Amino acid sequence: MAETLLSVGIDIGTSTTQLVISRLTLENRANPFSVPKVAIAEREVLYRSDIHFTPLLSDTVIDAQGVRAIVEEEYRKSGFDKGEIATGAVIITGETARKENAREVLSALSAFAGDFVVATAGPDLESILAARGAGADEYSGEKYADILHFDIGGGTANLSLWSHGELVQTGCLDVGGRLIKLDRDSGRITYVSPVITRAAGHLEHVGRGLAPAAPYRTPVVGDTAAPEALAPVIQTMVEALEQAAGLRPGRERMDAFLTQGTRWEPRAVPVVSFSGGVADCINNPPADWRAYGDIGVLLGRAIAASQAFQQAGRFRGAETIRATVVGAGSHATDLSGSTIFYRDMTFPLKNLPILKLTAAEEQGDAAALAQSIRDKLGWFADEGGLSQLVLALRGEDNPSYARIQALARGVADGLAPLRAAGFVPIVAVECDQAKVLGQALAPLVDGPLLCLDGVGVDSGDYLDIGAPVANGAVLPVVIKTLVLNRN
What we know:
alpha/beta; eight-stranded mixed beta sheet; six-stranded mixed beta sheet
């Protein structure tokens, strides 16, 4: 008999806060004589909230109670009680994730679902979630194509490059619609983000200038906001995006807006896609460019007018402004394979984010594998440092002894920063080799260790792992992924 549950997603972004409630229908797709295999048979969005401006107490502090009030009101309007919600996610994204009290906001919302995945999403993780919400990852896999997805919101443009369905790289530019705010009544600029001044200084330093065709002055608070006065900085933002997509030579403009602590290596892509609030202004901009009290409409129009982006193919996803939070928490309950290895573990383990390597990264030698893991650990770091995660590998059907030893050394060395931070090495492998990999890892790492197989996950998923069953032979697992609306 099919089972249903309710899932909620809450996204607190630089510009907007929104909520979506979905109904998931689960069914057991295994035959009566097999281990249950529960999957989502149907997804239905039951309620989409209004899109609210994210309330702030200052440029650096989120109004936690204001956000809570928005969520409470949207629950009331939806007709659903928070006690009915079985799962979901609260995601703090963009510049909002950098605010002083981001954790306080998460705490204020922690009672609004059952088993919440609660995360402050950094730019790398946010870019993955947005691409999946928009369907760029599926497009890449189905078309066997390369696609670069831009999620452009109020404070940042998150980039994710996909090739044949595989995530290749992520990055982030400080390009967004609310980097300059204005008062609609007076027509005066009320806020200019420090990243605008920083970018201008960078370009002046490299001798390129922000506006080759006209003198440029960084907008300042109190200036009259006019499209012609804002055009140079907006055009430079667009050129930074073009360089990131490999559609414009050089990288000086991209580097000027590259978010501190992130990297991006441009490469020409045949197809691009856009989500986020600015994507709505690319496709259907309002007539009044001051409609949102910022430069989002002008930025969207400039991207739409870009000849470089017009020359690239365009994939339009099912979601734009709601891509990151169309839904969260779809469950696929499963059991691990029976060749597992665990030592000194305490179960259950809840809400563990997945770091998955590409096939090419897995095939490297021990040193290259370790470096790939260390490079990606930063996806799951915030102001509090690294967090517990699961390293996901595809593995090999018939690996040699030498290959297993090299894989174990690479994993042990790559996860060393995680172990130094006090977290447990946990490895999930798709192929049937977790026991032998765990045995090879055991002498290389001290303390608790877990390797399980028969689990297929992707970056952006979360994993719950229960206590061993069947005399310790297998582990029950729950894979939590995005609820994607494909209508």
